[in-house]
Amino acid sequence: MFDRKEYQKKYGKQWRKDNSEYVKEYNRKWSKDNLERRREYNRKWYKDNSEHIKKIRRQRYLKNHGKELKQRYYYSNHKRELKRSEQYRKDHFEEIKQCRERRIKIVQNYKLSKGCLFCGYNEDPRSLGFHHPDDNKEFGVSDAVPGMSLEKIKKEMGKCIILCRSCHTKLHNELRKLKKLDKNKKKV
Description:
- The chain is mainly alpha-helical.
- The protein has helices at about 5-20, 20-35, 35-50, 50-75, 80-90, 95-115, 140-145, 150-160, 165-185; strands spanning about 130, 160-165.
C-alpha cells in the first residue's frame, strides 16, 4: 500500500536539497506575504515555551559569562571562600592525598609504559618527562597532576612524547640552535 507520508519523507528531503534556491525564494516570499501570521505564531510559541527559552538563555549566559560571575563572587567573598577551602582541605586531607598519589601513579605508569622515544630508557619515571612537539601546550602535565581532572591530564599526555632528561636537553639545545639560525637568516 502506498504511504504518502513515507514517500514525502523519503523524496521530499532530496527534492528540497536539489531545489534549495527555489525553496529559499519560496520561503522568503511566503514570509513576506504572511507577516502577521508569522508574528502570531511566534508570539504563541514564545508564550508556550517561555520556561524552555529562559533555561537556554541562562545556559548561554553562563557559558559566556560564567567565569566572570565566579570571579566577581570570589572577589566580593574571598575571605569566606579562603576559610571554606582551607577547612575543606583540613577535613578531607587523606582523601586529597590519596587522589593526588593515584594521579601521580597513573602518570608515572604512563611514562614507564612508553619510555624515552629516542633512547628507549624506561627504568625510573622521575627521569622521564613530557615534551610537546607541536607547541600546542595548554599546561604542563607535571604541574597539573595535583589539581586537574584526570581526563584533561590524559588528553594533554596524548599530545606529548616521552623523553629522558638527557634526550630532552639535547632536543631543546638543537631547537635553540635552529631558532638562532633562523633569527640570523632573517637579519641578513
